[in-house]
Amino acid sequence: MKTGSCRICPDNFIRLRNMPSAFPVISTQVVVAAFPVGMVKASDMTVVQTALPPLADGQVLIETEYLSLDPAIRYWLNPTDTYVPGAKIGEPVRCFAAGRISASQHPDFVVGDVCSGLLNAQSHVIFDVIESAKIGMGLTRCDLGLGPLSQHLGVLGMPGMTAYFGLLERGKPVAGNSVFVSAASGTVGATVGQIAKLKGCRVVGSAGSAEKCRWLVEEMGFDAAFDYKSESAAVALKRLQPNGVDVYFDNVGGDTLDGVLLNLARGARVVLCGALSMYNTQCHEGGNAGLRNYMKLIMARATMNGIVVFDFFPQWPQATAEIAGWLKSGQLHAAEHIEVGIEKFPQALVALFAGAHKGKQLVQVVPNQRAPGLAAAT
Amino acid sequence: MKTGSCRICPDNFIRLRNMPSAFPVISTQVVVAAFPVGMVKASDMTVVQTALPPLADGQVLIETEYLSLDPAIRYWLNPTDTYVPGAKIGEPVRCFAAGRISASQHPDFVVGDVCSGLLNAQSHVIFDVIESAKIGMGLTRCDLGLGPLSQHLGVLGMPGMTAYFGLLERGKPVAGNSVFVSAASGTVGATVGQIAKLKGCRVVGSAGSAEKCRWLVEEMGFDAAFDYKSESAAVALKRLQPNGVDVYFDNVGGDTLDGVLLNLARGARVVLCGALSMYNTQCHEGGNAGLRNYMKLIMARATMNGIVVFDFFPQWPQATAEIAGWLKSGQLHAAEHIEVGIEKFPQALVALFAGAHKGKQLVQVVPNQRAPGLAAAT
């Protein structure tokens, strides 16, 4: 078992050495049952099993280990094409995931490689490396020397990269700046705040409970935090950042963003990352209540722009290396909440928007669920 | 009369050589009678005569020749402090004006100098050069060799500078870009569009009548124009700039800005200059309907920021020289509409927001109205 063993799942690796003769593979998939209207419900998704076709040239077969729960999933569940194609009924829910290659028809990837990417909510995925790379959604090799696989979906993956490039490349914080981040108890927010602290900034976060605020200050090292359910950003920031906000990393939109616009320091940078407050209820074009105070950007000589993390794809390796260094030195902390079993995905997504947990939220695909069809075939 | 004569008003100059012995000077002033609620009304202003005190050190006395009508006046009529102090009942309406120095207690200015600045709606003004310079609102010397005095309030003055720096420094157009400007028949808009054409861009403007649209295309050289009263920006831009807007110079806010956000080209720059659509009805904090599509900035990798023309004050001379060159070569056209008589100021301001005229709108302070007190005293 020593040679060829897999630190994720030794049993599996042995079995998969027989690929691709073991096709057809049966994949357990969480698919779109209905386009969500308003708050996403577990019933908007359903779990099915699907036989996968044989691999074509340029494709790899990946067995997923972790599915990533990110706010963007709600956005991707809309049928409208955005920077990714719109959702379709019956197709797997779009999400990031990480796993191991169990068959390959692509010369750059071999069986056993550990990768992450937009693999979607499924136990097995046929991934077209060439086609995906064309639209900048390629496969990322996960170096387990940097951190465990789950972290490659969090602080070492898309949310970490969003925090890193959004803060540093768009927010451009300098030591002494006042940085404010909303949804600060999520992976992106907690990482933004901690990196801003590393850069010598004074950091305030908002979150949805007193316990989360305590955690931000006592465990994540924020200078202050406030519960947005009991105090508006407009009021809290006058108290906590009385000289104005130099960098606002916006994960929520809505009233919080409007409140920040009333509290901008001169030359402020507003980085739009997401709009948690609007994803569910007001996700469609023109459907939200609207940003009322945007004219404050003029007076503050402020700039507002957005972060699309895929734009920095070529620079991810340098960023993950730097983050891994901070993790190892204890300067950066990565919290995780993991639900076990792919069938938990729908309710875990609902829990994400309910703000039930802190840090990175994941679903672990357990081995005996991953390949029932394959087990029967071998 | 040859020596010491004044091309603006020869009579006046002779008379004013006797200053400051002629104090007290009586100034005819258009003062704030009420803070406007909704659309500004002529009755929000009243004309009074006020005796001015003697000049103190650092001050100059200026006789105004032209009062400038600009959308920002509506904003400045609110009692809230912004980048300038809020309006006060009984004080002259804040506006740009141009005129001639008729007495000076400041070493850098002598009687006869022609200047513009925030001189407000009055025939005579005591202007504190030192205090005003401290807040970046200094006096600008008008070089009549560049163009007639009225143009120093238009294309060679604040609106021209707003267009020049807003477009070039914030919008950063490059040849081949699609540029859209709203309120294009105003001074700022018409200048933005013409400069963008000089830079090799394809330029579309919006205005409030078919006649204004005709004028933009046939006389100002725009590639296309549409009447926002009969077609929304969201729809018109899909037709007129189908590859998206690279630079949007926003003079109006509201639905037009929201419509542009649906039509951004990748990497677009949105330059916030004003919000004509909101100045009157929804000027107060949080009072407007709100910007609904701002999240489109993320997908478009677009940036939104504002232009505060005073920030470029040190660079005005270089910009006015360049604009004067374009005027002289016929590459840039400056339209004007002038009402004669300071008492016309309130109704001219109302007409500005009603969109009654094209180009720069001015009130000329006629000499026999300018110094009734002074005339009696000499």
Give the overall pLDDT of chain A as a whole number.
88
Structural class of chain A: alpha/beta
Rg over CA atoms of chain A: 21 Å
Please report the distance between the alpha carbons of the first and last residues of chain A. 19 Å
Largest interface: A-B, 32 and 32 residues
**Approximately how much beta-strand content do the residues of chain A carry?**
15-25%
Major beta-sheet overview of chain A:
7 strands, mixed
Number of strands of chain A: 15
Uncertain residue segments of chain A:
1-21, 281-287, 369-378
- Inertia-based shape of chain A: globular
Element layout with pairings:
Two copies of one chain form a homodimer.
Chain A: H1 10-16, E1 26-32, E2 45-51, E3 59-69, H2 72-76, E4 97-104, E5 114-117, E6 124-128, H3 129-134, E7 140-141, H4 158-171, E8 178-181, H5 187-198, E9 202-207, H6 210-218, E10 224-227, H7 233-240, E11 245-250, H8 254-261, E12 264-272, H9 276-279, H10 296-299, E13 303-306, H11 316-329, E14 336-340, H12 345-354, E15 360-364, H13 367-370, H14 372-377
Parallel strand pairs in A: 8-9, 8-11, 9-10, 11-12, 12-13, 14-15
Antiparallel strand pairs in A: 1-2, 3-4, 3-6, 3-15, 4-5, 5-7
Helix pairs in contact in A: 4-5, 4-11, 7-8
